[in-house]
Design a protein that fits this description.
This protein is an alpha/beta fold. The protein is 46% helix and 22% strand. It has one domain: Rossmann fold, CATH 3.40.50.150. The longest helix has 20 residues. The chain is globular, with a radius of gyration of 17 Å.
C-alpha cells in the first residue's frame, strides 16, 4: 500500500494538513535535543522530510539514517535528499520490529506519522529503546483523535469523509480509507505514553497540537 501511494504522499500530506505538517516535523526534530555530530535514526521515514530535518540539526559531522519498509518511499526520499544537496543521509530498508542496528547506536530515534502502522507497538518501542544510547531520546509525532466538540466533529467529517474522497481523487481510495481507521484504532496520547513507560523509557511527556489532532511524545532511555 505504501509503495502504491508513494508518488502522491507529499502532495496528500500537504492537502490534508494545509501544509502544517512541515512545522510539526520541525518541532519533533527540535524535541530530540540533537547537537552537531550526533547520530539519529528516523523510522518509518517515508519520503524523508523528518530525516532531513534531523540532518540539519546534526550537521555534516553527524550521521542520520532514514529507514522504512517501503522501497518506493526510500527511492523518493533519496531523490529528495540529492535534489536538496544533502548526499550524506543514508536511506535503507528496515523492519521496525527487528531493527538491523546494534544496541546503543543512536543519540535519537524519531517516528513521524508511522508508529500507528506497526503490527506490534510494544515490540517496536522495545526495539527503539534498544538502539538508543543511554540518555538518548525517542520522539514520536502522530495523529491523534480529538474527543471534544466542535473539533471532534470536524475531525470525524474530515477524516471519515473528506480524506477518503481525496484518496479517490489521488487514485487509491483503499489507502486513504485505511488512514482514519488506523487513527481510530491507535491508543490515545496517554495510552502511547503508558506504552513508552512499559518499554522502560523515562522522562515521558507529550504535547498536543492543532487543537487536539497532533501529538508529539518524547522520552529517554535511562542513562
Amino acid at each position: 500500500m505504501f509503495d502504491r501511494i508513494a508518488g502522491v504522499y507529499d502532495l496528500m500530506n500537504s492537502a490534508m494538513t494545509a501544509g502544517l505538517h512541515h512545522g510539526w516535523r520541525s518541532r519533533a526534530a527540535d524535541r530530540t535535543g540533537l547537537a552537531p555530530g550526533d547520530t539519529a535514526l528516523d523510522l518509518c521515514c517515508g519520503t524523508g522530510d523528518l530525516t532531513l530535518a534531523l540532518r540539519e540539526r546534526v550537521g555534516a559531522d553527524g550521521r542520520v539514517v532514514g529507514a522504512d519498509f517501503s522501497e518506493r518511499m526510500l527511492e523518493l526520499a533519496n531523490e529528495k535528499a540529492l535534489d536538496r544537496g544533502v548526499p550524506d543521509v543514508t536511506f535503507e530498508w528496515a523492519d521496525a520490529l527487528e531493527l538491523p542496528y546494534s544496541d546503543r547506536s543512536f543519540d535519537a530515534v524519531t517516528v513521524g506519522f508511522g508508529v500507528r502502522n506497526l503490527a506490534d507497538l510494544e515490540a517496536g518501542l522495545a526495539e527503539m529503546s534498544r538502539v538508543l544510547k543511554p540518555g538518548g531520546r525517542l520522539v514520536v509525532l502522530e495523529i491523534t483523535q480529538p474527543r471534544r466538540p466542535p473539533l471532534s466533529t470536524f475531525f470525524s467529517l474530515w477524516f471519515d469523509r473528506l480524506v477518503p474522497m481525496l484518496g479517490r481523487i489521488a487514485g487509491d481510495p483503499d489507502a486513504y480509507s485505511y488512514l482514519p481507521e488506523s487513527v481510530r484504532n491507535f491508543p490515545p496520547p496517554e495510552g502511547l505514553a503508558a506504552a513508552m513507560d512499559r518499554a522502560g523509557l523515562t522522562g515521558i511527556r507529550y504535547t498536543i497540537l492543532a487543537g487536539g489532532i497532533i501529538a508529539i511524545h518524547s522520552a529517554a532511555r535511562p542513562g
